[in-house]
UniProtKB/TrEMBL annotation:
Signal peptide: none annotated. InterPro entries: Pra-immunoreactive, RDD, UCP021697. It comes from Streptomyces dysideae. GO terms for cellular component: plasma membrane. The chain crosses the membrane at residues 49-67, 79-99. The keyword Cell cycle does not apply. Residues 43-148 form the RDD domain. Keywords: Cell membrane, Membrane, Transmembrane, Transmembrane helix. This is RDD domain-containing protein. It is found in: Cell membrane. Pfam families: RDD.
C-alpha cells in the first residue's frame, strides 16, 4: 500500500475501507425491513436537515413577529419552545411538520406506522437537545429516533 492509498482510506473513513476489504454493510434501512429507494425508504440526511431548517425558520418568524419586540436573545429561546410544540403537535398527530411535508418526509414507528403523542414528546425533547440528533447509527437514524423507536422515511 503506498502513501496515496493510506491517505485515501483515512479520508474516506473506516466504512469505505471496510467495504473495499469486502465487508457488505447493505443499504440504509435494510435491517429495519425498509426498501432501499422510493417511498418508505430511510430519509437522506440532506432532506432531513433542510426540513429542520424550514421548521426552524418558521419558528423564528413566529417568535420574532408575535412574541418579542425585535430580534433579541430571547427570540431564539422562544423559537426553540415553538419548535418543540410544533414537533409534538404535528408529528404526534399527522406524522410530519411543515418542513418535513415540504421535503416529502414522514416520521413513523416500525411496529404500528403511526407516532403516538408520547413518542412524539420524547422524540421532540431529544431533538431540541440537539446532541441525540447528531449521533447516528448505521441506518442513518439519530439517537432521538432510536430512543423513541421511530424512523424518518420518504413519502
Amino acid at each position: 500500500m503506498d502513501k496515496r492509498e493510506a491517505i485515501g482510506s483515512w479520508l474516506s473513513g473506516p466504512r469505505a475501507a471496510a467495504e473495499e476489504a469486502g465487508v457488505d454493510f447493505g443499504y440504509r434501512g435494510e435491517q429495519l425491513g425498509l426498501p432501499e429507494e422510493g417511498p418508505g425508504s430511510i430519509a437522506r440526511p440532506g432532506r432531513r436537515l433542510a426540513a429542520l431548517a424550514v421548521d426552524w425558520g418558521l419558528c423564528l418568524l413566529i417568535a420574532y413577529g408575535l412574541i418579542t419586540d425585535g430580534y433579541q436573545q430571547a427570540t431564539g429561546n422562544w423559537a426553540l419552545l415553538i419548535l418543540f410544540v410544533l414537533h409534538v403537535l404535528t408529528v404526534g398527530t399527522v406524522g410530519f411538520t411543515p418542513g418535513k411535508r415540504l421535503f416529502g418526509l414522514r416520521v413513523v414507528t416500525l411496529d404500528t406506522g403511526t407516532v403516538n403523542p408520547l413518542r412524539a414528546l420524547l422524540r421532540s425533547a431529544l431533538l431540541c437537545l440537539a446532541v441525540p440528533a447528531l449521533i447516528w447509527d448505521r441506518d442513518g437514524r439519530g439517537l432521538h429516533d432510536r430512543l423513541a423507536r421511530t424512523v424518518e422515511v420518504r413519502i
